[in-house]
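Write out this protein's structure.
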Amino acid sequence: MSLTPKFYADRVCLNVLANSHDNAVDIYEAAEGHVLVGMLSKSYPDVPSAVEDMKACAEKINNALSIGLGAGDPKQSDMVTELAGILQPQHVNQVFTGVGKSRNALGQNDTVVNGLISPTGTVGMVKVSTGPKSSTMADAIVPVDTAIAMLQDMGCSSVKFFPMNGLESRDEYVEVANACARNQFWLEPTGGIDLANFEEILQIALDAGVEKVIPHVYSSIIDSSTGNTRPEDVKTLLEITKRITTN
């Protein structure tokens, strides 16, 4: 199975959560394959149970598996690395300090590995102390271009900018997008993205010239009564993506 996500127009791939294997298949079909289906390491009691379930799911969606931390939980970093090495998925979510370990465990450069950096309230400056120990210390805040260079040093594929709270950090996000473009780095906007703000958030990244964008749309498209991501909402996201990516 492919280790490379299926980007629409070689530019955009959605990232959404699945509540079950059936939900994962429905999402994959709704997105016409232009999606990474998130399964959270935090949802499993141990590595063996996660491997068994995630592997079975990945086989049903052409390996479009995204191994997640769970709300960026740094305590899940090592488990994600172990799962990545075993499962060889298309996508891995990591805290800033976990990127190198995950890339090493994968043993290849095709799988997308992101690195989590956070808004600081200051345009052009980002927080990189998102790891298990560093997140408990005083914030390490660096210029976004430096953060990207450090991620590149570790074999990272993309910036995961989280938590964005939708467009609350718009000015900071614009500069992160510009920095990704000028450093030939991919971008994954995450946090508070919904059907209402998705278009603007994606458009900002495309206008900046970011090579590839992986927007994460989570709770806003989950049916609270079933826990499933709504396939019809995924279809809407794909329609928006097609419209603005090909313009």
